[in-house]
Structure formats: C-alpha cells, structure tokens
Amino acid sequence: MSSCISIGAAHHQELLKNQLDRELRALESRGLKIRLQEKPLGWLTFLDCSISGSGNLETIIRRRVAGIITDLILNNWEATLLKHIIRENYYYFNDDEKGTIYDYAQKKLNFSDHSRKHNKVLILRRLTEYMEANNDINIDGFIRFRLKDYVNELYDIADQAADDFIMDREYQEFIELLKYFVEVQDPREELVNVVLRPNGAFKLFDEQAQIINSDYLEEFMLNITENEINYEDMLISALITVAPKKIVFHPGGGKMPHNTVDTVSKVFGGRVSVCDGCPLCIKDSN
To answer: Are the C-beta atoms of 131 and 64 separated by less than 8 Å?
Structure first.
C-alpha cells in the first residue's frame, strides 16, 4: 500500500508538522513507513505525507489526519481567526482595546462547553468526508469555504464580545462619574443602614436605627413595589444624595443583591460593609 496526502497551511506550519509527525509515527508499529516533506508554495507551506507499507490502513490514516487538523483548528486556528475578525471589524479600537475584546471572546468560547463539542463534531465530520475523497487540502481554504457556519459563529462571538466591552467601558465611566458626585457632595448622614425588603425594595435608617424620611429623599419613594422600579438605581441615587460617611448593608428579609453591593462599593470605596445579622435585620425582615 502506498499513499500520499498533501496538507497546505498559511499558519502554524511548524505545529502542524510536529503534530502530524508525532501522530502518524504511532502507526509505524503496524508496519507503515512515514515520510514528511515540506514544500513552500507562495504564502502556503505544504506538507506531503508519504505513507507506505503492508495492509489496508488508508481509511484509518485519513481519519487520523482529519482528527489532527480538527484539533489544530479548534486549538490554534480559532485564535488566529478571532484576532483577524476583531482586527478587521473593529479597526477603530486601539490595540489594547482589541486585545480586551479578544479576551472577552475567548471567555465566551471557553464557557460554552456544548458549543465547543458541537463544533468539534461538525469540523471532524466535514474533514473526514473531505479527506476520504481528496488527497490534498488547504486548511485555510477549507475553513473559509467549507466551515462558513463555524466562521459565522466566531463573527457572532466577536460581536457579542465587542458589545460587552463597550457596555463595561460605559459602566466604568458611569462609576467614575458617580464617584465624582460623591466626592463633591457634603455628607448629610454619618451612617446609613440599608435594609433590604423581601420584595426587593429597601429602607434607609440612620445610626440611631431611625428611618430616614428627610425631604431630600422624598422623591425616591423607597417603598414603591411596581415592577418597573429599578431599585438599584434608586438606592444609588438616594445614597449619593445623602452621601454618608459609612454605609452598612443588612440582608433583612431579602436576598443580598451582590451586584448592587458591588456597585455601591465601587462608588463609595471603603465606606461600605455588610452586616452578618443584627436586631435591625430582624426588626425589618417582614
């Protein structure tokens, strides 16, 4: 039996060569002889895999090559594709911002284990079908023309990552603006206790555990329960208005909203703490 498979690539040629050599050498125990020959051709480098020996291992060899290329696409080409997509589609961001978008995209890809398994099965199946009918393959061309749905998914991931980056940047700018408001505001209370209600609303108490109902808080209507009320925005607005020197969160009868506590902590810095349980929590837990 004699066979020759030619594999061309514009990226990761050395990695491809080493992987092919390692994986195909494992078949030498079955009486095969493997020879790899490197041939540069323009912007591509082709690796000619000449395989000879006894027995009929043609199908096994081609499937082994398909598996090698599948792993390389997912583990190496994918990063190159993502960087190219971000570089071309989001050229108006600087290099650091593009790098952050890329990191966001990678996290999204790694987070979805189901999607990665699906992509691996998809790529392996199409490569296997192609390798069974062809003796040569250009990996970059194969990705571009035969894995369009996979590439389109990467475009979607990059779009989502860019949106997340923009939202996070706007959030950080918002936090900085709120911090400025706090810095220029004269404190109206020494201490404010924030007690959460079971319905998600909240009450504010001073350091004597008296509810704060001053005129400057009247506009916030702290006990309104309509669904359209954004309690986090209301709370932050109220706290900025009061600008206390110290803020203590009390779970009360509600669930501690960690995102809200985190946002308030970013705005007020070291002024914020969380109560582990006290009479004020019990008193207003119903």
So the answer is: no
Give how far Cα 31 sits from Cα of 18, 52, 54, 87, Å. Answer: 21, 9, 6, 47
Domain boundaries 191-283, corresponding CATH code = 3.30.420
Residue type at position 18:
N
d(CA 99, CA 101): 5
Give 138's strand partners.
8
Would you state the structure tokens that stand for residue 78, as one six-digit string? 């994918």
Rounded CA-CA distance 159/151 in Å is 13
Q: Which of 104, 109, 108, 79 is nearest to 93 (CA)?
A: 104
Tens-binned pLDDT, residue by residue, of the chain (286 aa): 567 899 999 989 899 999 988 888 777 777 778 888 888 888 889 999 887 766 667 788 888 899 999 999 999 999 999 999 999 999 999 999 999 999 999 999 988 777 889 999 999 999 999 998 999 999 999 999 999 999 999 999 999 999 999 999 999 999 999 999 998 888 888 999 998 776 667 888 988 888 887 655 555 544 444 545 677 788 888 898 888 999 999 876 666 677 788 889 999 988 999 888 787 776 655 5
Domain ranges of the chain: 2-177, 191-283
Residue 69 CB partners (closer than 8 Å, separation 6+): 7, 16, 127, 137, 139
* 246-279 residues labelled b (16+ CB within 10 A) or e (exposed): bbbbbbbebeebeebbebbbbbbeebbeebeeee
